[in-house]
Specification:
The protein folds into 4 domains: 287 residues, Alpha-Beta Barrel (TIM Barrel), CATH 3.20.20; 229 residues, Glycoside hydrolase family 3 C-terminal domain (Rossmann fold); 118 residues, Immunoglobulins (Immunoglobulin-like), CATH 2.60.40; 75 residues, no CATH class. It contains 23 helices and 29 strands. The radius of gyration is 29 Å and the shape is globular. Bound molecules: alpha-D-glucopyranose (GLC).
Length: 751
């Protein structure tokens, strides 16, 4: 299809019509040019295909589909292959429901554990999120269904998300809030992006040219389509010029007309409209070419897959005395409504009508006769069964309490106000622990919780909101059929007050100041050497592993060299299992830019039989060592020594090595902040030193006598920070002398 010919043959009105949706889910068709409409649906962990939505006022219905684990659970898998499989399965379901675009994945960072939508996001770490999102996108798009990575960008709270202004410095954006989108676009090759509701540094995301054109399109090479979040449009023409293609859901023609009028009046260049329309037509063509209406979704196969996937995501947080897995013949009681009716997805646009739900109580029947007492529900205590539960626990060998966060505690549209479990659940745990020391708690929550009674809990299994098969997966793990292998993709802090966004998170009606910069999650807690409840990357197994034989391909590298690191891992236990080997990098040089003590730069998940040894390889490059330098508007790997830490949690890094990196020095910033120290660090050129020496003799003189040492120390530090222009105050230096030094340095900079 010659798209430019179609554009040439379209009227201005037809072109403008393509810049907004037909209705809640469909793009517009252009009959005269045989341009079809394509359909979008949420995502991101289940296909929420609606019917009866085409005309306003109708009551839409949602088709049933398989609910897979939410992103918070998937993030804990640390498994690219698994995410690719999830994307593929979702692509199959989208195709079977004639959906061409799935609105996901959501890759926003978990800046605070309070964000109501954290269940829909992967992690507090941009590298992990980007790797997993790219894999999901590749899987989904392999089925001919377009991903739509969201919400671009810096949408990290629900409170007043449609107007709040995220105020974020560029380095923090580049290092924390953009990389996952960058990976989704560059590695995942996402065909579409959804801009967020919020403003970013004063400009709505939908019309933020720096974001949608300079970064997304020009730097990252994105040539797909940007759609708004639903209702996120502000100024339609400014958005079009900034790089936004389609306003969703629909503007009832209003903003289409704005476009026509703006072109007619000369305010909007028609060539820009044609460019946006070309991107939209190309995307429509790709999506429509993948459309197949002859496929049926094998829901049963997908449900089984969802159960296996959930089993790969669950995180075994505690297992004192090896209380898990439960043993045959034990007298077991399940307590809490989630055992018979689990919470397995979040509230809001991602909430789907699932095909079936498998509670743990039902699934456990294949393993053991389990007693069940409700004791409490999402609404609170169940007085009829409260005492019964305590008595059953007392008589049992093991009590398993199913707890977690009710939907009223977290959802799209609002944020949490605390990190606690409901009081009645803590009271239940306390009451059970008082009569039964063999206590296991299974959690169903979309984001971290603090646990008042953590010391009374021997076994703690974090299932997150793991989709419709969560109960089956929980039973498979509790009874040992599945060996848990998930790792926390976010820190569980000891207290909300320990989080760097506390106390003003989601308080201000108009502004969100990211004053903690890049220090979110473990980047903060580790740099502050703070205790946490459970660290990023933590997760136990029913077997044990040992890392050894760390090898590195070079002791010294230049900034553009790649570096290979390998380590052997052995299963030292008696049953097969999977482990996630994590690689973190920390800078050991004199840090003048400020950076977290260490950051995740590699992870690999491997399966090992008992006694088996495997070698795991990591491939590092400049970006692995670099920070974003806003003065050169690029990533810069600074010279110096770096430590490479390898382990199975951000706080369990038993093997490490170091590497010396030699980088070309940054060009000197030849302005009035240039200090003598900067010059001495940048060059030892004899001519420069000869020019400088008389100017600074006051600071480098011979400090003999008793106080000489102190003076010498003080003056050498002062010299380091002495702006070149200040030497005039301490020596007979003329402006010409100083200009001569600047001129010389300009020539050195260019070399
Ligand atoms: C919602 C969400 C977005 C979703 C869209 C369509 O407001 O923010 O994630 O895809 O609208 O339901």
């Amino acid at each position: 299809m010659d798209l430019w010919q179609i554009i040439h043959d379209m009227t201005l009105e037809e072109k403008a019509s393509l810049c907004s949706g037909e209705n809640n889910w469909d793009t517009k068709a252009v009959e005269s040019q045989a341009v079809p409409s394509i359909r979008m649906s949420d995502g991101p962990h289940g296909v929420r295909r609606q019917d009866n939505y085409q005309t306003r006022g109708e009551k839409p219905t949602t088709r049933p589909s398989v609910c897979f684990p939410v992103a918070a659970a998937l993030g804990a898998s640390f498994d690219r292959v698994l995410l690719n499989r999830v994307g593929t399965l979702l692509g199959e379901e989208a195709l079977a429901n004639d959906v061409q675009v799935l609105l996901g994945p959501g890759v926003n960072m978990k800046r605070s554990p309070l964000c109501g939508r954290n269940f829909e996001y992967y992690s507090e770490d941009p590298f992990l999120t980007g790797e997993l999102a790219a894999a999901y996108i590749q899987g989904l798009q392999s089925q001919g269904v377009s991903a739509c990575v969201k919400h671009f960008a810096a949408n990290n709270q629900e409170y007043r998300r449609m107007s709040a202004d995220s105020i974020v410095d560029e380095r923090t954006l580049r290092e924390i809030y953009l990389p996952a989108f960058e990976a989704a676009v560059r590695q995942g090759r996402a065909h579409s992006v959804m801009c967020s509701y919020n403003r970013l540094n004063g400009t709505y995301a939908c019309e933020n040219e720096w974001l949608l054109t300079d970064v997304l399109r020009e730097e990252w090479g994105f040539n797909g389509v940007v759609v708004t979040d639903w209702g996120a449009m502000n100024d339609r023409c400014r958005a079009l010029e900034a790089g936004l293609n389609i306003e969703m859901p629909s503007s009832n023609g209003v903003t289409d007309k704005n476009i026509v009028d703006a072109v007619r009046s000369g305010k909007l260049d028609e060539a820009m409209l044609d460019k946006r329309v070309y991107e939209t037509l190309r995307w429509t063509e790709w999506c429509y070419s993948g459309r197949r209406t002859d496929t049926e979704t094998p829901y049963d196969r997908h449900d089984l897959a969802a159960r296996a996937i959930a089993g790969e995501c669950a995180v075994l947080l505690k297992n004192e005395d090896g209380i898990l897995p439960l043993a045959d013949g034990q007298k077991i009681v399940f307590i809490g409504e989630y055992a018979e009716s689990p919470r397995f997805q979040g509230g809001g646009s991602s909430h789907i009508t699932c095909t079936k739900v498998t509670p743990a109580l039902e699934a456990s029947a294949e393993y053991a006769d389990v007693e069940y007492v409700r004791m409490f529900t999402d609404e609170g205590r169940d007085d009829k069964t409260w005492d019964m539960a305590i008595s059953a626990a007392e008589k049992a060998d093991v009590a398993v309490v199913f707890a977690g966060l009710p939907t009223s505690y977290e959802s799209e549209g609002f944020d949490r106000s605390h990190l606690n479990l409901p009081d009645y659940q803590e009271e239940a745990i306390e009451a059970i622990a008082a009569v039964q020391p063999n206590l296991v708690v299974v959690l169903h929550n979309g984001s971290p919780v603090t646990l008042r009674n953590i010391d009374k809990i021997k076994g703690l299994l974090e299932m997150y909101l793991a989709g419709q098969a969560v109960g089956g997966a929980a039973a498979d793990i509790l009874f040992g059929k599945v060996n848990p292998s998930g790792k926390l993709a976010e820190t569980f802090p000891l207290r909300l007050e320990d989080n760097p966004t506390y106390p003003d998170y989601a308080k201000n009606k108009t502004e969100v100041r990211y004053s903690e910069g890049q220090y979110i999650g473990y980047r903060y807690y580790d740099s502050r050497n703070m205790d946490v409840l459970f660290p990023f990357g933590h997760g136990l197994s029913y077997t044990s592993f040992k890392l050894k034989n760390l090898r590195i391909s070079a002791e010294k590298i230049k900034e553009d060299d790649s570096l290979t690191v390998s380590v052997d891992i052995k299963n030292t236990g008696v049953r097969a299992g999977k482990e996630v080997i994590q690689l973190y990098i920390g800078y050991d040089g004199e840090d003048h830019v400020g950076r977290p003590v260490r950051q995740l730069k590699g992870f690999e998940k491997v399966r090992l039989e008992p006694g088996e040894i495997k070698t795991v390889m990591f491939y590092l490059d400049k970006r692995s060592f670099a920070y974003y330098n806003t003065e050169i508007s690029d990533w810069y790997a600074e010279s110096g020594r770096y430590t490479i830490y390898i382990g199975t949690s951000s706080r369990d890094l038993p093997v490490k090595c170091s590497v010396e990196l030699v980088a070309k020095p940054l060009p000197l910033k030849l302005d009035d902040t240039l200090t003598v120290g900067d010059i001495l660090e940048f060059t030892d050129d004899r001519e420069v030193l000869e020019k400088l020496s008389p100017m600074v003799s006051r600071f480098t003189g011979d400090f003999s006598g008793l106080d000489g040492k102190e003076h010498r120390q003080m003056f050498s530090h002062m010299l380091d920070g002495l702006p070149l222009h200040s030497v005039k105050s301490f020596s007979n230096t003329t402006d010409e002398d100083i200009e001569a030094v600047y001129e010389f340095l300009r020539r050195l900079n260019e070399q």
